[in-house]
Design a protein that fits this description.
Elements (H helix, E strand, L loop, with lengths): L4 H9 L3 H10 L23 E4 L2 E4 L5 H9 L4 H14 L1
Antiparallel strand pairs: 1-2
Length: about 90
């Protein structure tokens, strides 16, 4: 079986290239969290945007590399992120 570019992309990212491009356009070519331009460029990644839930893939949005890393460090745990944000608000 020959693996097409489209199939390999789907295996790696969980979505088809066309779906990725539509999502990027919906986000005005910006990271959904920090609004950094071009989250799909070579420095940025299409990571940490999918969650397996009841055998479904939930695509949450395209993230830049930094935002993806932060969510990974916080293990996609919103409570930990809220506590961290509260800490930053108190010390600033």
């Amino acid at each position: 079986m020959k693996l097409t570019k489209e199939y390999c992309y789907k295996l790696k990212h969980g979505v088809l290239i066309n779906d990725y491009e539509k999502l990027l356009k919906q986000q005005n070519n910006k990271c959904v969290i920090c609004n950094m331009p071009n989250p799909g460029n070579s420095r940025s990644v299409f990571v940490s945007i999918m969650t397996a839930r009841k055998r479904k893939i939930l695509v949450r949005g395209l993230l830049c590399d930094d935002c993806s890393r932060v969510l990974g460090i916080f293990e996609d745990n919103p409570e930990r992120l809220v506590v961290a944000a509260g800490y930053l608000l108190r010390v600033h």
